[in-house]
């Protein structure tokens, strides 16, 4: 049976200093809202040859401008409102 989906593709680059300066409660609310939406998500065409992995949400610290510093990507389910503290950047 065909089914329609509401699909979010969000990729926002926020200066890390702005994110770290935001109140912890606000950062955590954003995370919890994303987790709530993620909990409702399904894989499109699950079990079929054309299955799409449409259940993902990650924190990502992009460090391309720092030379040989790799980006850091962590699943959003980890409680990491300040990634720098956890990964000691």
How is this structure best described in words?
- The chain is built from 3 helices and 2 strands; from the N terminus they run H-H-E-E-H.
- It has a two-stranded antiparallel sheet with strand order 1-2.
- The chain has one domain (16-87).
- It is of the alpha+beta class.
Question: What number of domains?
Answer: 1
Please state the CA-atom Rg, rounded to the nearest Å. 16 Å
Tally of alpha and pi helices: 3
Derived from helix and strand composition plus strand pairing, the structural class reads alpha+beta
- Described by its quaternary structure, the protein is single chain
What percentage of amino acids are in beta strands?
Answer: 5-15%
Q: What's the total number of strands? A: 2
Can I get a quick summary?
The protein has 89 residues and is α+β, with helices and mostly antiparallel strands. It has helices spanning 16-21, 24-39, 83-87, and strands at 58-61, 72-75.
Tags for this entry?
89 residues, extended, alpha+beta, two-stranded antiparallel sheet
Walk me through the topology.
Layout: H1 16-21, H2 24-39, E1 58-61, E2 72-75, H3 83-87
Antiparallel strand pairs: 1-2
